[in-house]
What we know:
The chain has 11 helices and 16 strands. By secondary structure, it is α/β, with parallel strands linked by helices.
Amino acid sequence: MAKYSVVVAGATGYAGGEAVRILAEHPDFDVAAVAGRSSVSEPFARHMPHIPQLADLTIEATTPETLNGHDVAILALPHGASGALAAKLDPDMIVVDLGADHRLEERAAWDKFYGGDFYAHWTYGMPELIIGTEVGADADGGYRRQRSQLPGVKRIAGPGCNVTAVTMAMQPGVAQGLIEPQGIVADLAVGYSGAGKNLRRTDLLAAEAFGSARAYGVGGGHRHIPEILQNLAHAAGLEARNAEDFAIGFTPMLVPMARGILACVSAPLSAKGHDLNDDEIRAVWTGAYQGQEFVTVLPAGELPATQNVLGSNAVQLQVVVDHAAGRLLAIAAIDNLNRGTAGQAVQSLNIALGLPEDAGLRKIGVAP
């Protein structure tokens, strides 16, 4: 079978470069073109020398003319940049947006956290997202999941990286009503690539990051918050407009590592949660992720670590109960560029095209 032709816009950025790296090794895709903005006409090898098999590519302008004519387009662009561009692309090609323009379902949430033009919501690209409980032969571990919405779609909205970590950590507890939805707190240790790529961070990374950690996006203004609440509403079987039923204290912190996210997400136990013992609560998490090949709930007593998932589409999870505080703590470790962005996009793209879900993706990290 002929390979699908793919073009990646924003190919020299963190997320776009990771998408190119994954697709370059994928058995079913051919990266036929790469596009950028300030790097137009430069050799792709100058920016991504670790992908030598694509060294002959020249970076093209990010225009509809460059993107149209391929089977698949990956848009790894800043928020606000992909919506207008996507409207000019061939409706028969598959477009995956790694940015924020098509993630949110409610305009009010977009206006509050982003502003500017609001674009229609696309099919959300998180296959394991719980969208309600279900009983029957077609149930996926007793849940309805976003995976069922992806086959055959032409437009996919890739989730945010912090959103992925928080959602994967806490959604089983939300789906089963084990926590109080207004008391969620998420503290995240995030590698510098998770905050985006710009000249200042690139130039001063060593001086600013080594041996130091700092919070950012504090005070309830981080743009991933409405997406997290939207996902938690869906995990509870609700519509996006019910996201206001949930509240989260969200604090990401840049730490001295290049990539990776460790999310520690806690919430007060509900009355139902208090009625369960530790083994029963743990069984909720293991049951929710049974058969989800990229997700591992670690054995009791073991804790997730970012080094264990680097370079992979894997998620490591653990859940424990702090009985003294009456709180449930769920911990997730992901690679923000792979599972948090490009890998998850390829996973969703595989499903959309009817390919094996794990095609071209790593399930284990590169750490020894």
